[in-house]
Structures are given as structure tokens and as C-alpha cells.
Write a structure and sequence with these properties.
Two copies of one chain form a homodimer. The first copy, chain A, has 247 residues and is an alpha+beta fold. Helix content of chain A is 23%, strand content 23%. Chain A has two domains: 142 residues, Alpha-Beta Complex (Nucleoside Triphosphate Pyrophosphohydrolase); 66 residues, Winged helix-like DNA-binding domain superfamily/Winged helix DNA-binding domain (Arc Repressor Mutant, subunit A), CATH 1.10.10.10. In chain A, the strands form three sheets. In chain A, strands 1, 2, 3, 4, 5, 6 and 7 form a seven-stranded mixed β-sheet that branches. In chain A, strands 8-11 form a two-stranded antiparallel ribbon. Chain A binds a DNA duplex (27 and 27 nucleotides) through helix 5 and strand 10.
DNA sequence: CTAATAGTGTCTCTCAGACATTATGTC
DNA sequence: GACATAATGTCTGAGAGACACTATTAG
């Protein structure tokens, strides 16, 4: 039993490596995709993994995640600051990395459909993978990815976060597809529209009345993200499997 | 810019200390309390702080939090396993501890009204504080405590977690007081009752029809926690300030 | 009896699910 | 014209807020 529950006994200090891992999600063509990088060295050489890296001596985990996000998406840190990034949870199993004790703070990022990524500087290959079609990932990244998917699914219910997957101007059809893609369900269009438009601050009509075609139907009105962040009352998933099991 | 976004370059390894901090909540006499310990040494000597300690070389943060919870509540690890414990988030500001680089994984624990705690082995003083009446805490613990309070408030809306504050058998009045205490609002008793009883698996009537007095009114029926963990549809707070600000 | 707490019943308004109907574009 | 997608309107049922009322104890 530790005898220093309140102070920080210097003798109890044990060095850990601290990293961040990112689950960067986007919606492309009605399917949820996640950004993965291919590992070029052991362990798990040839496997795909979530992008990530060490937290540097003078930065917070948040800053490290922001930095990695900019590197991996190939954008400037300035433009990538607009992306939604949120801390998921921390993974600390002693054996999660076979080489040493590594504690990883996982983040989820939501980005609009971006150009195909370039690797982060060196020859590392990076690409978008459709979720559910990734092979077994390195380390405990399957678990992290699964947790991240669950989390953003739940966040869509109670927040206005779905707009983070969309470009600056989007149609209500785009927004609905985000929900349908992340949740894996189909929603009723008129009801979805009513819910979004009657929630103050969820979306706002784009100023000029421009319109855009989605193929060959009637052009849709364009909207921008509103100022609201929370969603009250929530937009609940129809039925079926939820985060918390009810055995 | 880091040039090893995918591998773990040994030269990039920087040692961190990793700790856990616990926000242990209970409801006593209609007020929310949190367990704090008094610091006996610099920095923040004499200040109160959340209980916590180092993650040991061969344990996960979850196990460390469980161990600290048992030590601080003065119970066996076995009986303290029944308490609800959930990871909150990780705090990693480089200057959060003036002595060295410490990354802390914060947990929230919900316990029923317990006997007054004894310190964790040595002479450290520990006691329950009413939330909102604590002085400035050590380190960034005010922030952690605030985040923890927000989180459990939100969890009560979507989960059956309120029973974690109650003893094995409790009345619906007890349960309602948990909600009112954590949220700081008053709820309508008939409506609360209806919501709880019509949610399958939230509570179950205690077998024998025993009853208990709460003073000098009609004795109340006793219930136990049910098997459900999620709450659908949710039990939303009346109105007012929420987690996500809507500026 | 009164005071206090537990428990029941009912009305209404909000909101979501279901789905019919109209509008406006491409081919 | 056919077809596809966007947008509007309407009916209904589940559920929450408000609140009147009854039940059972202590004093």
C-alpha cells in the first residue's frame, strides 16, 4: 500500500512515456472514414494504426493532439484549428505497448471531407479507411477506434457537433447524411428537417439565397453552422443498440 | 515538427510522472460533498486537494484509482469495488505542478453516505467538504472538481447512475434528493416517481414489503437498483445552465 | 385534530414518428 | 413527359410539466 497518498514522494516517481492518439473521422460518400497510418517498423510492422506521437516536454496533450492533427491532415496548424477536437479518454494498460510503459491520451477529431492526406513529413503512408473495413489495428487501437465511434455517436444526440463534418456551407441533406452515416440508420427527412430548423442556433440560412444541386433533383437551400453547441431537447437515435448496454 | 509521427523514436522519449486524482462524491443531508485531503508539505502546504497518487509500474490508471479509492475511504478494496468509478479526463498542462512534469488522469467516484474517513495510512487529514464551500484547492483541482461536478450532473440525465449514491435499499425520496442535490434544483415528486417507475430496470421493489420512516410522515416503500444502466428517454434537467454554453 | 411525508390521478402542451402532398430541378 | 430530390403540411401517440387529491404515519 502506498504510504504517500497526498504528497508526491520523489522516490515513488516512475517514468512513463506519454503520447496522444487521434481518431480523425470524416464522412465521404455516405460512409464513415477514419485516418490511419501504416507502421514501418516493429512492433506491428505493416499494420495500420491511429496517427499519434509523443507529448513534447513543454506542451499539453491538447497541444500535441492539435499539432499531430495539422501534420497528418497536411494542413497548416492555423486552418486545422477550426476542426473539432475533443479528448476521449486515456489508455494506460501496462502492456499496451510491448516495448515500454506508454500512457496514451486519445482524442477524436471531426473534419469535413478533405483531400487525400499526405504522410506526416517522412515516408509514412496515410490514408482514409472506411470504419468497419479496417483490418486489426496495431496496439489497442481497435478498442480506441471503437470507443471513439461510440462517443461521437452519442455526442450527435446532445450537441450540434454534426456540422463539424460539413464544409462551411451545406444542405440539410448533407447534415442528415452525417447522422445516418455515424449512427448507421435511416432518418425521416421531413422530421429531421423540422428538428434542425426549430432548434435555435443549430443552423442558419446562408445569406445570399444561392442553391446547389445534389445531382438532378431540386436544388437545396444552403446553411451554415449556428452559434449553439448544445441541443435541447436532444435528437435521439430511433431505437436499437446504444452506448450503455441494458442486459 | 516531429519527424516520427508513426513510430516511437527512442530519442523522443521524455519522462513524465503519471498520477490519478479522484473526485469522490457523496450526498449527505441533501448536500453534495466531496472527499478532500489536507496537504502536509509544499507546494500548497495547508491547502486541501483531491486524493490521488502515482500510478505504479505494473498497474493501469484504473487500478490505481481503485486502489486509492479503497485507501481513502478506509474500506477494503473488495467492498469498494462496488462503488461506481469512471474516468473523467486527463489534465496535462506543463505547469500544473511546479516541481515536475505530471500528467494526471482524473476519475469521479460516487459513493453512498459513508462513515467519516480516516486518512490513508499516515497522518494525512481527510474529510468530506460540501461542494461550493471548499476554499481554493491545490494545483488545478478546482478545475477538476468543477469538471467532475458537471460530468456527473450530465450523467444523471442519461444513465441510472443516481442509485450509486444510495445504499442498497432506498426510497424514491432518497433517489429524488440525489437529483435535486447534484443539479441544485427542485423536482416535482409525482412526475419524478412516474418517470423512475415507468423506466424498465431503473429500480425494483425490495422483496419483502418492509417500509421505513423518514421522520413523521407516511413510511415509504423501499427499492433496489435495477439492472438497467442507460435511461431512455433521458431524465432531463428542467431548464437553466447546462454543460455546453450557448453564447 | 394538525402536520408531514408518501402515493395516485388527470389535464394539457410539446414534440417526435409516420406519411401524404406539393415544389422545382435534370433527363 | 418521367424521375429525382427538396420542402411543406397534417395526424397521432408518447411523455413531461403542473397540480389536485388521497393515504398513512407522528404528535
Amino acid at each position: 500500500m502506498s504510504t504517500a497518498p497526498e504528497g508526491y514522494d520523489p522516490h515513488a516517481f516512475v517514468p512513463f512515456a506519454v503520447t496522444v492518439d487521434l481518431a480523425v473521422f470524416t464522412v465521404r460518400e455516405g460512409r464513415l472514414h477514419v485516418l490511419l497510418v501504416e507502421r514501418g517498423e516493429a512492433p506491428y510492422e505493416g499494420h495500420w494504426a491511429l496517427p499519434g506521437g509523443f507529448v513534447l516536454p513543454r506542451e499539453s496533450a491538447e497541444e500535441a493532439a492539435r499539432r499531430e492533427l495539422a501534420e497528418e491532415t497536411g494542413l497548416t496548424r492555423r486552418s486545422s484549428r477550426a476542426f473539432h477536437l475533443e479528448q476521449l479518454r486515456t489508455y494506460s494498460d501496462p502492456d499496451r505497448d510491448p516495448r515500454m510503459r506508454v500512457v496514451s491520451v486519445a482524442y477524436a477529431a471531426l473534419v469535413p471531407d478533405l483531400p487525400e492526406p499526405r504522410g506526416g513529413g517522412d515516408a509514412a503512408r496515410a490514408r482514409w479507411w472506411e470504419t468497419g473495413r479496417t483490418g486489426p489495428l496495431a496496439f489497442d487501437h481497435d478498442r480506441i477506434l471503437s470507443d471513439a465511434h461510440d462517443r461521437i455517436g452519442a455526442r450527435l444526440e446532445y450537441t450540434c457537433l454534426a456540422t463539424a463534418f460539413c464544409p462551411a456551407e451545406f444542405t440539410l441533406g448533407d447534415l442528415q447524411q452525417v447522422y445516418e452515416t455515424v449512427w448507421g440508420v435511416e432518418l425521416d427527412r421531413p422530421n429531421f428537417r423540422r428538428k434542425v430548423l426549430t432548434t435555435p442556433g443549430f443552423v442558419q440560412a446562408a445569406e445570399g439565397p444561392p442553391r446547389r444541386t445534389g445531382g438532378r433533383g431540386k436544388p437545396a437551400a444552403l446553411y451554415r453552422a449556428g452559434a449553439a453547441t448544445a441541443l435541447h431537447p436532444p435528437l435521439l437515435r430511433p431505437e436499437g443498440r446504444r452506448e450503455g448496454r441494458t442486459p
